[in-house]
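User: quick one, fold this
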Amino acid sequence: QLVESGGGLVRPGGSLRLSCAAFEFSLDNYAIGWFRRAPGKERERVSCIGGSGSNTYYSVSVKGRFTISRDNAKNTVYLQIDSLKPEDTAEYYCATLRTGCDYGFYVIDRDYWGQGTRVTVSS
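Assistant:
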């Protein structure tokens, strides 16, 4: 089971740190991806990180503002989101990536998803 947390209401330019914690299994061998779905829009890839943390990927829309990291000792992956914009408003989800972290990363049926955490950027 994956559980996201850390979402909330923040003003433009603000920051949040999202967490994706795993329960009942170890994240050590999994690449993890973050996705988001804005109201009325398709799900979008945001970022991913390899199992060892040595490789990361960011979508063009978030590169330079978001930072993904992991702490395998805490069984948690983080997404630091800075310089937030209204267009970052979305439900953010994490998922395991059995196919790995790379451009175009995707989930398969056997991957695990979290329930999502809502980020709202508004003045």
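User: anything notable?
Assistant: The chain has a mean pLDDT of 95.
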